[in-house]
Amino acid sequence: MERVLCFFITLGCAKNEVDTDRMRALLLHAGYGMADSIEDAQVVIINTCSFLATATSESIEATLTVAGIEGSPNKQRHIIMCGCVPSRYGEELESELPEVAAFVPAQDEDNIVEVVSSVIGVQRSAGIQDDVDMLRTIEGTSAYVKISDGCDRFCTFCAIPYIRGRYASRPANQIIDEVKNLMRGGVREIVLIGQDTGIWGQDFEDGHDLAWLLGQLSVVVRPYGGWLRVLYLQPEGMTERLIATIRDTPEVLPYIDIPIQHCSRRVLDLMGRPGSRAELKALFNRLRDEIPNMVLRSTGLVGFPTETDEEFEELLEFIQEVEFDYTSVFAYSQEEGTIAAELDGQIDEETKTERAQRLIDVTEQLGFSATSQHVGEIVDVIIDGVENTDVGQELIGHAWFQAPDCDGSVHIAFGEARVGDVVTCKLVDSFCYELVGEIINNDEG
Fold it and tell me: Could you give the domains of the chain?
């Protein structure tokens, strides 16, 4: 029988990238192949995002686009929609999207082999159980590893708890085994992700926490000269024990990603989030005092219902005062099914857009300045890929203070290293969030 080829389209965040990679590994293990293009595929699997209404629309548009692409003659193409959109909207999608052969909520994605087999009319199973979480197809030197799923915070603006369910830490042995396999396969940077990484382990009875997990993983990556990076921490998760672990464990990068959303106590209360301007300022001062050369990433949310001009100005001032290295900016989105969507005092789109742009202008000024301060440093850089420019090809990589896929990059002259290498560079120039590096010692080991 001819080998059935699948093609993945992944939308949304890094957590979806991990889920796609696991599904791909399961299908490959079961004997399915991967197509190089949609046109060549008999099965197209779209892993969707529904965090915002715009993301839901993008997911549906991508599905309809695939449905309109002609395939190979005499071969039917089947579309399978996975992830957050099926998790959020369930059965109502079947009548709205007849082009889709099957819908797979996020919690059912480990059954992807059975779903694909059913859609194309064959009998085939994954044939594995215990090592499902260890299967990966990662290529490259950085890898995202999920340590939890779901969320218990129920922030009033966010639909994630309704899409992904309640918070569940992933067992330590699964995480450790996966990291071991990734390091043996050539990965040199592990990026730990989850909806709320700082409270990993709180639902276990053994008392283990994120600081303990980082200690275990540092032993795994140390022989490889590996990096450990943690994303999506919340302010309450920054315990003394975790701060000390980040400070005192060389393998754990002093890169801290803490979304604040706002600094006004009144707005934070309405968001269902704790904290205040004074408490957040004290936290970031403590982090900078205790962790030398630390890099800070955060997130600001503007235009939340009833946010006043004065409260927005307070957020602007706070961002300028703290001087984050990187800040993502979002305008509030009125999400169906959330508490905030029903609040009085919804702010018009023009005001939200204007506030978002003003905050972006401030965060870019701060970010460009922070990037330029790295000029002159000698750092290790992971080579991620090759990019075509007006003057030819160049290598693209990232340093310890740049999270892959969301911060800037280091640009290096082509030909001095290969993708996957870890090289030592002198940073000689900067532009916006980007840096120019010159290799001074090529370390391929």
Answer: 5-120 (3.40.50.12160), 140-372 (3.80.30.20), 378-443 (2.40.50.140)
